[in-house]
Design brief:
Length: about 350
């Protein structure tokens, strides 16, 4: 099988992660890097691939089969549309775009041009997602009553050297919570109502830093979620799973799914089950369910190649990516300062 020819547009933090994943796959071949930064030019040189400062310059000379758009969120729209117009399939990082109007433009263009858009919600590729859905729909778990989750950590000051990360389109709601919303929609079902308190009083950025969220799912389950990039805690996905080599593994569980008969700590699965009657007079036994060690970014690129070859359809298409964006924008719209929030 000949490898699928890919380009990466935006060779920053996550662009490098895509490159690392791609290098492990025989079915993918990097042919070009687009990024005006000097370090991107150096990477292209060391990888032996073409380098371009702008996507238009690349498309005038080489047209890959697939383009990975990993530029800052505010700059997802233009390269995604250019790549689609040139006939490429696109893997665009999350959030799909900074606004719903931009997400619509991507969805419409993909439809007109008849090309696929895959949105980079990489967590969906973990086996633990499938295992968790199975547990939650089991009779031992019972009916899903609620979920309590947390993504709390303190981002380092260097992280904010890139000015775009201080904008409200790139605060923890649109950068981090969007992963949690995609995860919750995938495991618990669609969200019908969302509300929150949004505070930005820790750092002097345009973006928020701490958010308390309430959720109501279409199936009747309720949820609460605490989000913050200003507190140094072990309770967040990255520290729980160790998926980012720069963030130390804790193995802690930031999620609890609550059923009428049992409950589940997640993502290091601990299934609390009742042997007899499921009420507070009966002891719950805890089963720890080991998980595979796996790289979701590798699985994501492998899936993107299959999408390009027409063997699979996108696991997270533009419509799906837009739904998570819509919920996050609703939360973001709740931003007030604490004086306005007084009752
Ligand atoms: N899936 C994930 O887990 C994950 C993790 C981190 C970031 N992201 C997403 O990826 C995107 C990028 O985030 P990052 O942290 O890698 O950013 P970054 O600032 O580290 O890198 C962005 C890169 O894009 C380049 N760039 C800017 N404008 C460009 C243009 N017009 N054409 C080509 N290159 C351009 C910059 O020079 C830079 O190298 C964001 O949308 C973010 O939400 C996803």
């Amino acid at each position: 099988m000949t490898a699928v020819k890919l380009a990466i547009v935006g060779m920053g933090m996550i662009g490098k992660r895509h490159l690392q994943a791609m290098k492990t796959l025989r079915e993918a071949e990097l042919i070009a890097i687009v990024d005006p930064a000097e370090q991107a030019k150096d990477i292209a040189l060391s990888e032996g691939v073409r380098w371009f400062a702008k996507i238009e310059e690349m498309l005038a000379e080489v047209v890959p089969e697939g383009v990975i758009v990993s530029t800052p969120t505010e700059i997802h729209l233009a390269p995604t549309l250019s790549a689609l117009e040139a006939g490429c399939h696109v893997l665009v990082e999350k959030p799909i775009a900074a606004t719903l109007e931009e997400a619509d433009k991507i969805q419409e263009k993909a439809k007109i041009i008849d090309r696929f858009v895959l949105v980079g919600h990489h967590r969906r590729y973990y086996e633990v997602m499938k295992n968790t859905k199975e547990i939650i729909s089991s009779s031992v778990f019972g009916k899903l009553i609620g979920v309590n989750g947390q993504w709390t950590t303190r981002k380092d000051e260097k992280y904010f050297n890139a000015p775009w990360r201080k904008q409200s389109s790139s605060g923890p709601i649109l950068i981090n919570m969007i992963h949690e919303i995609d995860l919750l929609r995938n495991i618990c079902g669609e969200i019908s109502h969302v509300s929150g308190f949004v505070s930005g009083e820790f750092r002097e950025h345009a973006k928020e830093d701490t958010v308390a969220i309430t959720l109501w799912f279409e199936n009747g389950a309720l949820g609460t979620f605490l989000l913050s990039d200003a507190t140094n805690s072990p309770w967040n996905w990255e520290h729980a799973t160790g998926e980012n080599a720069d963030l130390p593994f804790t193995g802690q569980n930031p999620y609890k799914f609550l059923g009428s008969k049992g409950c589940l700590e997640f993502p290091n699965l601990k299934f609390w089950k009742s042997n007899g009657l499921a009420d507070w007079k009966n002891k719950l036994e805890c089963e720890e369910i080991p998980q595979l060690s796996e790289d979701p970014y590798v699985k994501q690129i492998a899936h993107f190649c299959k999408v390009i070859l027409g063997l699979e359809v996108p696991l997270i298409d533009a419509y799906d990516g837009k739904k998570s964006l819509e919920i996050c924008l609703k939360i973001l719209a709740e931003r007030k300062n604490s004086k306005e929030a007084n009752i």
